[in-house]
Design goal:
- By secondary structure, this protein is of the alpha+beta class.
- The chain has 2 domains: 105 residues, no CATH class; 116 residues, no CATH class.
- Helix content is 36%, strand content 17%.
- The strands form 2 sheets. It has a 4-stranded mixed sheet with strand order 6-5-4-7. A 3-stranded antiparallel sheet has the order 1-2-3, with no helix packed on it.
- Strand 5 and strand 6 form a beta hairpin.
């Protein structure tokens, strides 16, 4: 990881590491893809048995992608979360999608996270959720995906993408759960900045579900969310 300070800005990237893995997997000259995964792609379980060679190759690529996702690439959060579920029994099609992610990375190899300390941009949180569109679970449960990222001085400082454990009954419930999980990390950041001598009276969280936002602002629990486990009302 490289960290540079220039003109009041901090630059954070893993360009040398990314170039190294693209070369290792033979993708250094790959044609750039526009998105981490093909639009509308829904991964499904492999009903066969992966060979040892395929499994080893798949795990090697996944390990490299996970390292990038966790350190400097919030744009990989959703895509890597989708394909890491098949590490123990991948198919050729799953391996092909990891190569698609590498093609995407080849097109943005020089990209960097830029934190502009002079911008006076505070901490902002953006949160979203799908509704029952993940069908890769072995028990055939239609679960929802959620994700959020924290932006400080115009660049991401935290990002998250995962499948919800609770089966949502509506898109409002899925979004409400995502907002509540997001609020846990938000509370931690309030404590951190207070300890640093920079207390924040509030931190804005942006969501796009009117129903979920209404339920967070209303102190009376609504009929449509009374069945939700109590810890999801943290928001």
């Amino acid at each position: 990881m490289r960290i540079e300070y220039r003109g009041g800005k901090t630059y954070l990237d893993q360009v040398p590491y990314l170039e190294k893995i693209l070369k290792r997997f033979g993708m250094a000259d790959a044609k750039a893809a526009q998105t981490p995964l093909p639009t509308g792609y829904k991964p499904e379980l492999f009903d066969g048995t992966a060979t040892a060679a395929l499994q080893s190759q798949y795990q090697s690529v996944i390990g490299s992608l996970l390292y990038l996702r966790l350190r400097t690439h919030p744009n990989l959060a959703f895509a890597v979360t989708q394909i890491v579920k098949f590490t123990h029994n991948p198919s050729e099609e799953h391996l092909l999608k990891t190569r698609h992610i590498l093609c995407y990375l080849a097109g943005m190899c020089k990209y960097t996270l830029v934190y502009d300390g002079r911008s006076d941009a505070g901490l902002y949180i953006y949160c979203d959720s799908s509704y029952g569109d993940d069908r890769s679970d072995a028990d055939c449960r239609c679960q929802s995906m959620q994700g959020y990222f924290f932006s400080l001085v115009n660049a991401s400082v935290k990002w998250h993408s995962k499948m919800q454990t609770l089966i949502s009954m509506s898109s409002t419930v899925a979004e409400y759960i995502a907002l509540s999980d997001c609020a846990h990390d938000c509370a931690w950041y309030k404590i951190l900045f207070s300890e640093l001598g920079k207390p924040m009276p509030y931190i804005p969280i942006y969501g796009d579900s009117y129903g979920a936002i209404f339920n967070t602002q209303n102190p009376i629990t609504q009929k449509g969310i009374k069945h939700i486990e109590i810890h999801y009302h943290y928001i």
